[in-house]
Design goal:
This protein has a four-stranded antiparallel sheet with strand order 1-2-4-3. The chain is of the alpha+beta class and about 100 residues long. Helix content is about 55%, strand content about 15%. The longest helix has 18 residues, at about 10-30. The protein has one domain (about 1-90): Arc Repressor Mutant, subunit A (Orthogonal Bundle), CATH 1.10.10.10. A hairpin with a 2-residue loop joins strand 3 (about 70-75) and strand 4 (about 75-80).
Amino acid sequence: MDHILRLGRMFAHERFAQFVLHLHDRLDRVGLVTGDSFAMPMTQEMLGDALGMSAVHINRTLHVMRREKMLRTTPGRWQILDRERMKTFASGEQGRLGEVH
């Protein structure tokens, strides 16, 4: 149900933030998170398919998340830098993020 609502009712940055937090929490429960960092083997195309977005839109959203200092990405690994702010964006309480929508 969450995934259906995520696709139909959320802005791109909200969907993306919620997905990142959800993935982090699931990986943390099975011991695959170090600090706030976790392996991210998915390509931008795969992420786009999962979130109903184009790979270009994923790239723009990642750029904004990095610029806003919420997420650090390195090849194959992501780190949540500001979990509380990301939670705010995932909830839709803060409105649009940068130019991404």
